[in-house]
Design goal:
Elements lengths: L1 H29 L21 E6 L5 H6 L23 E6 L5 H13 L3 E6 L1 E4 L3 E5 L20 H5 L5 E7 H8 L5 E6 L5 H10 L8 E4 L11 H20 L12
Parallel strand pairs: 1-2, 1-7, 2-3, 4-6, 7-8
Antiparallel strand pairs: 5-6
Length: about 260
């Protein structure tokens, strides 16, 4: 009876020990976090594959889309950042533009590029803002040679004044909230921002909402803080608040180089 028991006990003990070792290894392997910058695409499953995302704030008639895709004959040239594991054509592209005059152009751009396999999403007549809701937007109607580049959320913008703009109610979108809801820290997110002075509100809000967790590159075309109007003290406060927000974003890892589209 003794030898028979040993024949059963020893194999059973071996199986239990093996399960313990495998379980310990699995726990150790999965409980160690990897910094975002060190995550390899080989480490990602199909469900959490990194995305390359380009967010164009102030897309105009989609001319900056052509620049992003590096098309010959584009309005200007700029080498927008991209990850080593994706091409510009493989990016998911989101175009935001407030001026309704460009609605048709944006729809046509989406249709044209989606037929070519480029993922283009449009937000026409949409104001980039710090909250969701209705936002009054002041249209530039005098600078047709420059695609009405002075349209702004500010009634005091010089081109809004020249246009005698009374303001048009449009849909506003909370950019920070939208980014946090639609992107992930593992994604490679590039934002181009040319919003005629509204950056003095939007950039501080991005910092306040910790949106740096999902932004890799933020390219801001800064306009004079005077566009927002106000007293010298208010203008100075606006500029300093934006600069502090920029420094916070950079400190948290967001790349914010000097940017001027030349458009």
């Amino acid at each position: 009876m003794g030898p028979s028991n040993r024949n059963v006990i020893f194999p059973l003990a071996f199986v239990i020990c093996s399960l313990f070792v495998v379980g310990t290894y699995k726990y150790t392997s999965t409980s160690t976090s990897t910094p975002r910058s060190q995550v390899s695409t080989n480490d990602l499953t199909k469900s959490d594959k990194r995305r390359y995302i380009f967010v164009d704030l102030g897309a105009n008639r989609a001319d900056s889309l052509e620049v992003f895709l590096q098309h010959p004959g584009a309005k200007y040239t700029y080498d927008y950042p991209r990850p080593t594991w994706a091409t510009h054509e493989e990016a998911e592209i989101f175009l935001f533009e407030a001026n309704p005059v460009f609605n048709t152009d944006l729809v046509e751009a989406k249709e044209t590029y989606q037929q070519k396999g480029v993922k283009v999403n449009i937000f026409p007549s949409t104001v980039v803002d710090v909250k969701d809701g209705i936002r009054t937007f002041f249209l530039d109607t005098v600078n047709d040679a420059h695609d009405y580049w002075g349209s702004s959320i500010y009634a005091n913008h010089p081109d809004a004044i020249k246009s005698q703009s009374k303001g048009t109610d449009l849909t506003g979108i909370n950019l920070a909230r939208w980014l946090l809801m639609n992107t992930l820290p593992q994604d490679f997110v590039v934002i181009k921002m040319d919003i005629e002075g509204a950056e003095y509100e939007v950039v501080p809000h991005l910092a306040e909402m910790s949106a740096w967790t999902v932004i890799d590159h933020l390219l801001v075309e800064w306009h004079p803080p005077q566009h927002g109007g106000g007293t010298p003290e208010e203008i100075d406060f606006r500029a300093k608040r934006a600069e502090a927000a920029k420094q916070k974003l950079v400190a948290e890892g967001v790349v914010m180089p000097h940017y001027d589209s030349g458009a």
